[in-house]
Predict the structure of Glucose-1-phosphate cytidylyltransferase.
Amino acid sequence: MPQVVLLCGGFGTRLSEETAVKPKPLVEIGDRPILCHIMNSYSHYGFREFVLALGYKGDAIKQYFLNYPYLQNDLTISTGEPRIVPATRPDVEDWTVHLVGTGLHTTTGGRLYRLRDRLRGGTFMMTYGDGVSDVNLRALLDYHYSQGRLATVTAVRPRGRFGALKLEGERVARFQEKVPAEDSWINGGFFVFEPGLFDYLEDDQAQLESEVLDRLARDKQLAAYLHDGFWECMDTLRDKKVLEELWASGNAPWIPAGRA
């Protein structure tokens, strides 16, 4: 199965109420960081090997996963002979998580560039560490293979304020970041890439959204997987509250059936 890259290095400045003390991917929705919600979505479809591209407060994410077996399991603590024994629960995820520092000020494309030696072996998936969706990730991968292009982006219809994808059928003709347009399709993350992507990444300052994806589109190498279902990006405190309300309702749209 392809590896899944999660970009976890940004400063999250528009969510500074939370990110002053923790990295954005560790901001909680309900009782778990949004990062784990995203990883659960991939895991549900069989993708269980993750490469986390770390930057801002990356040590906090390392600490979280170092303690993950204890945080997610019941514990038996022996005080006479100090030791802690996790009682493994059957619903705890079986993940392989690679935690890789990719620099504090590195761009999104630059983080992929710094991972190039890990990812040249074949197809890989990628998304950001702050967006949740009910997209069928296995269907996304199958669609990518059927298109025969270097990259596939999941196109979604958001509440607004993002950039637009200009489509010609199922192919992306232009990639325009942050150009609001009513009823437009926008970049929802949830990418699939072939190793040929690295021919478009010249260094660790490559701008994935404003440069690389548009070049792929112009070369007819960027396909669009159209997703009309749920998608939400936790960009601000208001967005977090929306996701919290959905979680509290007991019917969060991004939670796969049987995993709530």
Notes: Residues 3-74+85-248 form a domain with the Spore Coat Polysaccharide Biosynthesis Protein SpsA; Chain A fold (CATH 3.90.550.10). The chain has a mean pLDDT of 89. The longest helix spans residues 237-248. The two ends are 24 Å apart (CA to CA).
